[in-house]
Amino acid sequence: MGFSKEEISKTRKLWSSLLRGIKTIFVLFTMFLSFLLISAPIFLAVADALLPSALLHRFSSPANLSSHLTNYDFRHSLIDIPLISIIRSAVILCVYGLCDGPKLSRGPYLTITMICSVSSLAYVSLKAAFVFGEPSIGDGGGNYFRAAEVALFLCSSVLAIGHIIVAYRTSCRERKKLLVFKIDIEAVSACKNVYPRYQKILQQERLK
After folding, report:
1. How far is CA 60 from the centre of its chain?
2. Which residues contact 26 (CB under 8 A, 6 or more apart)?
3. Is residue 120 a contact partner of residue 162, using CB atoms and an 8 Å limit?
4. Is the pTM of this model over 0.85?
5. Which range among 111-125, 134-148, 194-208 has the greatest average pLDDT?
6. Nearest Cα to 42, choosing from 7, 90, 1, 2?
7. Where are the alpha helices (DSSP H) in the chain?
8. Which of 40, 146, 162, 202 to pair with 89, CA 20 to 30 A apart?
């Protein structure tokens, strides 16, 4: 048995609707990815300010956190790791907000991000050498506390490296935008220079 014309038309409409839905989802997904890429410095700064603090709060009681502040010891206290992350993210976010296109392409944003990330990474690495060079002490006192310490140090280090990567990619993107804008300006200037000459030639031809 063959299909009737109505069934064929319904099938075609169904397939066309399905294709339109897939295209719409693809466009929305592409726009969402583009939004994430453009807003990557902001999202990364927020994550840098929240994640280390959340990890420290996860395996430390409020009383222990206050004791870390009052009885700070570089070899044992971990309160400075989230504080470093908060300061780093605040500085980078402020610089990013104050910079425009040219300054984002080559200027304060990339330089300050590199300085903040590399210095904080060096501090965290030095502290990790002291912390993990001694027996674990803390709330749990066992493998769980040691794993939480490792997670805290890794989180801060990975976020510092992430700031460098995002700043470099943002700088490259803004540089490309400025290059395209410069080409457009040169093209417009060339057209403005050519157009009066063209008008003058037309007037001369008309007078002939």
Report:
1. 29
2. none
3. no
4. no
5. 111-125
6. 90
7. 5-38, 40-59, 62-70, 80-98, 101-105, 108-131, 143-207
8. 146
